[in-house]
Amino acid sequence: MRNGEPGLPNVLCHTDVVWSIAISSDGRIIASGLGRRAPSICLWDTKTGTAVGEPLYGHRDGVTAVEFSPNVKWLASGSEDDTVRIWDVRTRRVSAIYPLICDGMSSGIAFSLDGLFLVAGDGAGRIHLWHAGTGGVVCEPLRVVAKADDSCIDSIRFSPDGLSIACQTGDGCIRIWDFAKRQQVLLIESQPDSELSGSLAYSPDDRLIGCGSIDGIVCLWDAATGAPSATLSGHGGMVSDVTFTPDGQYIVSCSDDETIRVWDVEQACASSSRSDNDIIMALAPTGLNSDGWLLGQSGELLLWVPPEYRAYLHVPPCTMVIGKRRIVITTDDRRLYHGEDWTACWNR
User: Is residue 29 in a domain?
Assistant: First the structure.
């Protein structure tokens, strides 16, 4: 979070496309799930970048999701083979629990914060709940009734307080379920011109839900009411995943534009109350249009950015852009002249 430089050597020993990844809560292990050609799970030491033991085999098809339990005792994996498996992290063997059966591909899995429950969403629009320690079924699968008959669950999360489950479905909506009552209590719909991309995250304080979109937007909503809290523009491609930092100060997004962006959450949510004289903050929520123009609040054209630089431009609340090329383009107000002072630029 300081400078965007790699913290460990590149991991180069994968034998197939990486479909999923997770980091243990103690920061010591990375798990990566591989695709159809060699469906398996690899564990990596975060300090050295070296493999921890041999790959974990058992799934018959690509590993679409991996997730560590909060105490790092277990690793859960979901697959295109319609199963969820639980692995013992210490022994690196599948647990005694039989494979947990879904009604379709499981592309989203999550442990509750206390580690007692495991939830999975599948391609048939079912939410499955199990006791993590025994694999026992908590209740009958919950069924999502989606628009346009597209109920595939792309992402699923427990709220940090364990009272709710959020899932993002193929119809571009986020649904919040009351865990105790097993009932849907809130529906969050994406903006008409923005289709959600299957990434979902709760802020650590339960206050916000973040999700990425196909058109490169990161959206924040109030987790209690579903009201929009912020829209973050800057990515030049689909946002494939989002996550909050443990302190909740930032949300991090990765995109098909081959960059990772770090956003200041408080600044983003406070942008609606900014001063009209704060031109730098006024640029933040608008971002670039399809022609590469940086837009003002009313859609006015402020600055045209050449195509080769668009993925590396960041204005508040974006605090960092990490890409394969170490280019940083940002804005500040030290030599920006606007309003009644705009003619001062000629005096330079």
Answer: yes
Asked whether residue 261 is domain-assigned, the answer is yes
Q: Model pTM?
A: 0.82
Structural domain includes residue 306 = no
Buried b (16+ CB within 10 A) or exposed e, 115-153: bebbbbbbbbbbbbbbebbebeeeeebbebebeeeebbb
Name the nearest CA neighbour of 198 among 121, 134, 92, 284: 121
Report residue 25: phi and psi, to 5°: -65, -25
Tens digits of per-residue pLDDT, 155-197? 999 999 999 999 998 888 999 999 999 999 999 987 766 678 8
Q: HSE of 335 in the Cβ direction (CA atoms, 13 Å)? A: 5
**Count of Cβ atoms closer than 10 Å to residue 304 Cβ:** 11
Q: What is the pLDDT of residues 51-91, one digit of tens each?
A: 999 999 999 999 999 999 999 999 999 999 999 999 999 99
Q: Which two tokens stand for residue 37?
A: 């050609």
